[in-house]
Structures are given as C-alpha cells and as structure tokens.
Amino acid sequence: MKTLWAWAKPKLFVDRRLIITYGIVYFLWGWGMNWFGTEMEIAKFTYWWQIISCYVLYMVPVSLLLRGLPFHRQYAYGLIAMGFLEFGGYALETSYAYPNNLLDQLFGIRNFSLGMALFFALYFPLGNWVVPKIYSLIFSNKA
C-alpha cells in the first residue's frame, strides 16, 4: 500500500488551480450529460448531487492518476473505473435507465451498462487532453 501511495501522491497533489479546472470542466460535462440523458430518456442520476460525487469526487482523481499515460492505457484503466461506477450506480439504484431507451434498442437491455462504461471511459483520455489546454489558456501568464 505504501508503494501505491508513493506512486499516487505526486499525481494527486498538483496545482490547486489545475484541480479546480478539472472540477469545473467535469462538473459542467456531468451536468450536460445528465441533462442530455434525461432529455433523450436514456439514463439519469437519481439525485442532482451525484454529478458532484461521480464527476468531481470520483472521475477527477482518476483522471489525475491517469494523466501522462498513452490514450489506450487511459481508456483501458478508465474502463475499469467506469465499470465499477456504472455497476454500483445501477446496483444501488442511484442511477436510472429509462425503459426501452435508445441504447437498449440498439444493443439490447443486457448490454446497457457495458455500453455506458465503454462510452464514459473515453472521458479520461479526452478530459486529460482538454483540461490542460484550458488550464494553460487561463493560467499561462500567471505566477
């Protein structure tokens, strides 16, 4: 466990402004996806605050841990992280999948959570590509 913490600590304890940038981007991303999922009647969070717990408190640290890895490794590790999140959300019924939604119709009801995990695992490499660009635009000339 000490070895894991020694590896993770420098990846997690970064510039506070970078963490805030990740938090804002992921919160807005989560809010937008929850809105889209609700409007399209695909899936939604049961409670609004799950955007914070899932996107900010769970996905931001995972993104920080995966920063710097090649796209395929970020996606692969992100798939594991999202698999646990999707499984937990639907098992605990804190996420709601609309009956006969678009994904059920395309891929079948038994593949819904897998499809969601495969899609949302892309957030990690995409977030780790977008957030540093936003961060550098905002803070490039500041001390």
TrEMBL record:
<feature type="transmembrane region" description="Helical">
    <location>
        <begin position="75"/>
        <end position="92"/>
    </location>
</feature>
<protein>
    <submittedName>
        <fullName>Uncharacterized protein</fullName>
    </submittedName>
</protein>
<feature type="transmembrane region" description="Helical">
    <location>
        <begin position="112"/>
        <end position="131"/>
    </location>
</feature>
<keyword id="KW-0472">Membrane</keyword>
<feature type="transmembrane region" description="Helical">
    <location>
        <begin position="18"/>
        <end position="36"/>
    </location>
</feature>
<keyword id="KW-0812">Transmembrane</keyword>
<keyword id="KW-1133">Transmembrane helix</keyword>
<feature type="transmembrane region" description="Helical">
    <location>
        <begin position="48"/>
        <end position="66"/>
    </location>
</feature>
